[in-house]
Structures are given as C-alpha cells and as structure tokens.
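Dear V.,

Thank you for sending over the compound details. I've combined the ligand you provided, zinc ion, with the protein sequence from our construct and run the structure prediction for the complex. I'm sharing the raw inputs here so there's no ambiguity about protonation or stereochemistry in the SMILES, which I know was a concern on your side last time.
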Amino acid sequence: MLCQRTIRKPVHAIGIGVHSGRKVRISMRPAGENAGITFVRTDTEAPASVPALAQFVSDTTLSTTISSGNVQVATVEHLLSALWGLGIDNLVIELSAEEVPIMDGSAAPFIDLINSVGIVNQSAAKQYLRITREIEVKQGDARALLRPYAGFKASYTFVADHPVYNRYPKQATLDFSCTSYCDEVSRARSFGLVKELPQAHAINRCLGSSLHNAIGIEDDQIVNDGGLRYNDEFVKHKLLDAIGDLYLLGRPVLGEFVGFMSGHALNNKLAHALLRCEDAWDVVTFGENERHGVGEPIMQPEASVF
Ligand SMILES: [Zn+2]
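Below is the predicted structure of the protein with zinc ion bound, written out as structure tokens.
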C-alpha cells in the first residue's frame, strides 16, 4: 500500500521573509495521519493555525498567502512544492512571523532540511486527487488547466521578449514518473528584473529580496555570480511554483497540469474551479498490487526518485 508520510522528528531553521524582509524561525513537526499540512503562527497572542488549503488563499500578489481570520502566512508555495516533492502528507509548520523564510529562493533548502531528519511512512493509505475531466481557467492571455493523466505531468510556457529570457527555454514539460523533482526542479530559484524592484518595494513586496535568494536580471545579463543552476531555470521555477500552489488542493494530483503565462492567481483560480466541479475529480488510494491508468504503478515520491 502507498502510505501517508510525515517527518521523523522536528527540524528548525532561521531565514528571512522575501517580501517582509523580516527574520523568521521555522519549525517543522511530525503530524498524525490524515492531519494534512497546517501552518501555525507562534508569534500571535495564542498560537493560530492556518490549514494549507486553497480555500484559505487570501492574496496572490507575487506569492501565495493563506489566511484564517486576521492571521496570515505568506509565501507558502516553495515549501509546499518541496513537501509535494518528498511526498509529505502530514506536517505542522510553526512560524515566528508572517512569512515562510525564502531560504535561497528555491525549494532545495527545505528538501535538505527534511532529509536531515528523515521521512516516515504512516499506516493510513495515501490519498491522491485524481482528475477525471479537464478543467481550464483563463485570465486575459494566460490560462491554466488540469486534465486526466496516469501519473503527474506538468508543462509551463511563459512569454517575455527580453534579451536574457530569449537566450533560455521558455517552455518545459516534465513527467514525474521519469523525472526527479529533487534533482531537476527543486533547485530552480525565483527570478526578476532588477529595474522592477523599486515598484515591488513601493507595494511593500520584495523587501528581503537579494541575490542570495533570487536570480537578478539586468539589461542583457544575469547579475548572480555563477549564472543559472539549470539552463531552463526560469521555466522550471514557474513549474516549482505551480506544483506548490496545486498542493493546496490538500492531496497530490494525479493528472496533467498545463500552464501558459499563469501565476499564483490563476493557479489558485484553477484549484477553486476544480474543487467546485465535483464530477471533475475523485479521491483514490493504492493498495499493495494495485495499478492505475494505463498499467504503470504509481511512484511513491522519494528524495532520489520523484
Ligand atoms: Zn516562486
């Protein structure tokens, strides 16, 4: 049987919020079967929790923020992407401030942190959200869709006429039955044009942004020493974001995601559209010898495999 997973023991780290610029301590703790993923703010008067679910998304400006009442948790997408990559179903994530630390701008530090304490199988069956018919959402020229697929496949295309972006792939399709999330996706960092930073600062965003946690792009060059980690790092980061946003569905998706110029807002709109159409998905588990779709066994994510 494919089982639910949590971490073996608590693990902690300190970083800064990329938008707030504030220092934050993150503690991840094991959670029981079927508990799901929950954020807990420990700096509020009484500890306040916010479930990592699409219904709690309250803002999608440059990152994904979830809220419950007046308690918010910002920039959840990279951590959730890492948790999807490691197949973590149940976890308590405590934060000492309003934002998940940005670390190096990718999901890799969260993968390393969790691997340092280990992952344990629980006894309950892992639940997948299987797409049974296509759902598409649009916003201007941007669109995002989920459709049936035996496994999980994700494609992304962005359109930007810029001398730097023009030098690298703007499209990627990854089938995670034969692609390692940890190796091929998790290290892709956030990126942005240096000249757009003042605009972000004007709306209190990117206050903690630096070359330590993002790829900075100037007129016709990448500012960071060492350049890119992957030749297609830009488009891979967009996939990393989409995977994190989709994990707010509460269960890993069995299906295919296709994004065209989409971002956090459209990803969340897609999640809501899907959840509204109860005939477009079901929840499935897999026993010892069960197979799905065209006959390939579902791969349980492993740090080295999925
Ligand atoms: Zn991102």
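A first observation: Confidence is low (pLDDT under 50) at residues 291-306.

Warm regards,
I. M.
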